[in-house]
């Protein structure tokens, strides 16, 4: 596996020379309403993003119903403080009987639908729906049996690395590879909800690419699109962002999710960042700049003069456009006589003085 690897996914491509593969994560932003889930799908399709992702779990496949301290989120957490894991996952999960209609809606709108599975039964469900790739969550990077189960499908895997040490990432990459995964993308990630730009550590994009020789992207939980666009400028080939219809509608992930308009801006700005950073170096005018060369300053006669008049600062100046002597010739021509009458607006040339 190399970082120059081209990974075809449906009609899209994950590659350095392709537009960034933008994944819109619905997560729990459907707020328990299938029609709202469909509306999110439609909004994602209209944004220009290539893929829609959901998560495949139930509260019971992720945890158990318990009020013991380890099963309760710290009160200090800004979004989910004080809730039990079971309560949160019960609210946020996407019902399994919604998967098929959501995938069907996404495919009908030209999107690539896929999911993050959290146990073997969810992999089985997704295989039955014909998913083209898988995502693994940051917290599951240490669940090597799950990673092997996903890798055995032979589908590409996009693996988030939030919280993980290099040793843990290496173990997960090896587990995926040994179980048959030949198309792997790692995502730099800060598993905080929301994360701050100070925590983004975008230098990990290059570090992961060098360490593991695979394409690298970003799973971004910061607010807005700035960090994602910066990541693309640093070589990220995949961007994942949570998306909702309207943050004011509430929901478990709404506070750090993009609106549809912001997602559209991300798609456009990320591609601009990729093109700009791959434009190379060079000096002198580009083809588009050549027309602007005519706007460079040069020496012009700025008032009517008669034969014999001397060149002075009041009748010859450096102005736009080009066409006259270079501006730096002013000290050479000052005091010289005109050899003919010259109208205002004539470029100064050697034959006039």
From TrEMBL:
The organism's place on the tree of life at top rank: Bacteria
Enzyme Commission number: 2.5.1.97
Keywords: Transferase
AFP-like domain: residues covered: 298-353
CDD domains noted in UniProt: SAF_NeuB_like (cd11615)
Entry-linked InterPro entries: AFP_Neu5c_C_sf, Aldolase_TIM, PseI-like, PseI/NeuA/B-like_N, Pseudaminic_synth_PseI, SAF, SAF_AFP_Neu5Ac, SAF_PseI/NeuA/NeuB
PROSITE patterns: AFP_LIKE
GO-annotated biological processes: carbohydrate biosynthetic process
SUPFAM superfamilies: AFP III-like domain, Aldolase
Annotated signal peptide: none
Single Gene Ontology MF annotation: N-acylneuraminate-9-phosphate synthase activity
Top-level EC class as recorded in UniProt: transferase
PANTHER family per UniProt: N-ACETYLNEURAMINATE SYNTHASE, PSEUDAMINIC ACID SYNTHASE
Official protein name in the record: Pseudaminic acid synthase
Protein species of origin: Microbacterium limosum
């Amino acid at each position: 596996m190399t970082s120059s690897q081209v990974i075809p996914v449906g009609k899209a491509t994950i590659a350095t020379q392709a537009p960034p593969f933008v994944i819109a994560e619905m997560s729990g932003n459907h707020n328990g309403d299938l029609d709202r889930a469909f509306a999110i799908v439609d909004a994602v399709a209209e944004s220009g993003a290539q893929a829609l992702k959901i998560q495949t779990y139930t509260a019971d496949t992720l945890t158990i119903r318990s009020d013991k301290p380890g099963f309760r989120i710290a009160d200090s957490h800004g979004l989910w403080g004080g809730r039990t894991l079971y309560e949160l996952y019960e609210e946020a999960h996407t019902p399994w009987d919604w998967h098929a209609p959501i995938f069907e809606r996404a495919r009908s709108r030209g999107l690539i639908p896929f999911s993050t599975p959290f146990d073997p039964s969810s992999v089985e469900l997704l295989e039955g729906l014909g998913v083209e790739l898988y995502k693994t969550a940051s917290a599951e990077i240490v669940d090597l049996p799950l990673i092997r189960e996903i890798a055995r499908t032979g589908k590409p895997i996009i693996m988030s690395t939030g919280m993980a040490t290099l040793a843990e990432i290496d173990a997960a990459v090896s587990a995926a590879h040994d179980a048959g995964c030949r198309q792997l993308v790692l995502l730099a990630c800060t598993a905080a909800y929301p994360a701050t730009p100070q925590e983004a550590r975008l230098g990990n994009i290059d570090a992961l690419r060098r360490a593991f020789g695979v394409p690298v992207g970003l799973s971004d939980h910061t607010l807005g699109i700035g960090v994602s666009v910066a990541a693309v400028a640093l070589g990220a080939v995949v961007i994942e962002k949570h998306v909702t219809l309207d943050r004011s509608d509430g929901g478990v992930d709404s506070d750090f999710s993009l609106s549809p308009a912001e997602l559209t801006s991300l798609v456009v700005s990320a591609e601009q960042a990729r093109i700009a950073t791959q434009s190379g170096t060079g000096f002198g005018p580009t083809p588009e700049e050549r027309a602007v060369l005519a706007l460079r300053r040069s020496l012009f006669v700025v008032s009517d003069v008669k034969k014999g008049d001397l060149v002075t600062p009041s009748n010859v100046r450096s102005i736009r456009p080009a066409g006259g002597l270079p501006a730096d010739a002013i000290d050479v021509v000052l005091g010289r006589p005109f050899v003919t009458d010259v109208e205002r607006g004539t470029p100064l040339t050697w034959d006039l003085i």
